[in-house]
Specification:
Blueprint: H1 7-12, H2 14-17, H3 23-31, E1 34-38, H4 44-54, E2 58-62, H5 87-98, E3 103-107, H6 113-122, E4 125-128, H7 133-146, E5 149-156, E6 159-166, H8 175-178, H9 189-192, H10 196-215, E7 223-228, E8 233-238
Parallel strand pairs: 1-2, 1-4, 2-3, 4-5
Antiparallel strand pairs: 5-6, 6-7, 7-8
Length: 250
């Protein structure tokens, strides 16, 4: 594990190191950290790029889908030359050009429950950039069991939402405190549409939440942020742990 930042890293990350909330100690912590990113689409694109550019030392990229031309409207980590290529592989190509010092692990198949648990055990933080409830419920359950923080984002049409479930804290709510199994029908961008910059907004905020969680700063744990891109309104609601939650409740 890296024990100090070299001169090049001190220069590269100098603007972050200048922030007293991060400083040298926080930047070193980022360099020592490992983030697991599930989904390299509209949300995963800015998440991966900002975490790599911010100096997170290791990223594991998971996506079993291929780049489609319709993705290019919003999935900015990909480009026209990579249509047909696996999204995790395509993302890795972009990230290697962005920051060659970031260690990249690429997984191009759908993880079964045992593999997912193994990957979460090896990571310091998990970012849910998926687009379906089954994956979100599975990540919630596995992160809760492993006591790893989970940064959750979603976007569709003009609306987005964001929160962090920090299972290092016993008072953190979980995804099932917000959404109950069987009570929701998946809504996808392909069926309902999404405006391109909205996923960039949510994904960038997910990356920011991850950085704060990794360096020990307060996050949105216990709060749900809702963004309306059409009216440019942002609202925050308290999201308390549900004592009757079948997953994390008492």
């Amino acid at each position: 594990m890296i024990t100090e930042l070299n001169d090049n890293e001190l220069m590269r990350y100098s603007r972050q190191i200048l922030l007293p909330e991060i400083d040298y100690k926080g930047q070193l912590k980022l360099a020592q950290s490992h983030a697991l990113i599930i989904g390299l689409g509209g949300l995963g694109s800015p998440v991966a790029m900002y975490l790599a550019s911010a100096g997170v030392g290791q990223l594991t990229l998971v996506d079993f889908d291929q780049v489609d031309e319709s993705n290019l409207q919003r999935q900015v980590i990909h480009n026209e030359s990579r249509v047909g290529l696996n999204k995790a592989e395509s993302a890795a190509q972009s990230l290697r050009q962005l920051n060659h010092t970031t260690q990249l692990n690429v997984i191009t198949h759908q993880l079964d429950p045992d593999e997912l648990a193994q990957q979460i055990d090896q990571a310091d933080i998990v970012l849910d950039c998926s687009d379906n409830f089954d994956t979100r419920f599975a990540l919630n359950q596995a992160c809760y069991k492993a006591q790893k923080p989970l940064v959750s984002g979603a976007a569709i049409r003009w609306e987005g939402q964001l929160t962090t479930y920090d299972f290092r804290n016993s008072q953190s709510p979980c995804y099932e405190c917000l959404y109950k199994r069987g009570s929701n029908t998946d809504q996808t961008c392909s069926q309902n549409g999404v405006v391109a910059p909205l996923v960039g907004m949510i994904g960038s905020m997910q990356a920011l939440e991850a950085i704060k969680a990794l360096v020990g700063l307060p996050t949105l744990m216990g709060q749900l942020m809702l963004i309306d891109g059409l009216t440019m309104s942002i609202r925050r609601f308290n999201l308390n742990k549900d004592p009757g939650c079948q997953h994390c409740g008492d």
